[in-house]
Amino acid sequence: MSRPDTDQLLLDAEADVRPSPPGTAARRALLAHPALLLVGIVLASLNMRAALASVSPLLGEISASFGLSSTAGSLVTSVPVLFLGVGSLVAPGLARRFGSEPVLLGALALLAAGILVRVLPSVYALYGGGVLVGTAIALLNVLMPGLIKRDFPDRAASMTSVYTGSMITGATVVAAASVPLEQAFGGSWQASLAFWSLLAAVAAVAWLPQVLIARGRTGHEVRVAPATGTRSVWRSALAWQVTLFMGLQSLWSYVLIAWMPTIFTDHGMSRSTAGVIFAFNNLVQVAGAFLVPLLAGRMRGQRPLVALVTALVAGGYVGLMVAPVSGAWLWAGVLGIGQGGAVGLALTLIVLRSGDALTAARLSGMAQTIGYLLAAAGPLAAGAVHQATGDWTVPLALVLVVCATALVIGLLAARDRRV
């Protein structure tokens, strides 16, 4: 593929627009501050799983506070994941109208608000806050790949490593700190969850200067008619393969995000130890999330990577079935490498299978809308099957079926083709 020209580099990845002279000047002004842009990306990425990971180590206390069953408790994690998909539907339209930077700023403010709403003394607020949290993270999820494709076209794979690594680092810190924070706040899970609204607020402050720098761009672009014969990503078999791989790897990850500590404590492990192992699982994901996109960017096809990450995840799930406590550290590590590699690979496939920034934005919206709607079923189904069987063997066995399906779909998505 030829090197993009200047107009392509300045193309707003979330809109069918071409910058006017004022818009071009604003984009160049923003790109003149790469350190500021990088800090904003890292801080925003730290929040992309933190609000989800903070719940899992405390899910037992949250459920006990409201008298929730396993199925109802699973909704605490499933509702945000569901709205990761629903929120993805509105992200491109918001970016088209207001620009990427203002929408990212608004998403971080909404995330901080949703975290605080979630700890109000009402089960409706608990779920309603989850709606806000999921919607906010959806905006971040959808806009980030397009923004990276737009602003770092020659370093898309390495920048994907940066933001996925930052995302998982945030989840790791939060998972490790949730139970100690609860104890530090006198046994208040509400205070522990609310604390992480500060992380979103700091990231929002970091994006404010970028919004001010880029403000001349919004409203100055001109609409570009799609080229004759342009094919919708929704009609592309390859786009659907990328989308389904994104959804299936998200499903197996969100089952663990929701239930890994509970699986350990149900087999006799202490809450604090389960929380530390859960944090270790997130920490190990950083290695996979950094390395796999870098490897993927150097390969014409990514089939070996699909096979590798899927095998690691399947092996880890088998370990949880046969020796959940005695092998906990090993399975957490194996799963972590596979999970981090899988999410990094899924996000990188969005970029690599796209021929330009506009296609990347459209494919990102499709993959994350359908993918997260599919993933939302994971925690809920696992909780319901656990409640029905009284054991974790059947839910974990069902995830192995997901792994097998993801392998087949992923091998198709990893072919050296473009949407």
From TrEMBL:
Assigned keywords, A-Z: Membrane, Transmembrane, Transmembrane helix
SUPFAM superfamilies hit by this protein: MFS general substrate transporter
Record carries keyword Membrane: yes
Short name of any one Pfam family annotated for the protein: MFS_1
Ranges for domain Major facilitator superfamily (MFS) profile: 33-418
Compartment(s): Cell membrane
Record flagged with keyword Chloroplast: no
TM segment ranges: 30-52, 72-91, 103-120, 126-148, 160-181, 193-216, 237-260, 272-296, 305-323, 329-352, 364-386, 392-414
Listed InterPro entries: MFS, MFS_Cyanate_Porter, MFS_dom, MFS_trans_sf
Main localization, broad class: membrane
Disordered, as annotated region: 1-20
Membrane topology: Multi-pass membrane protein
Name of the protein in its database record: MFS transporter
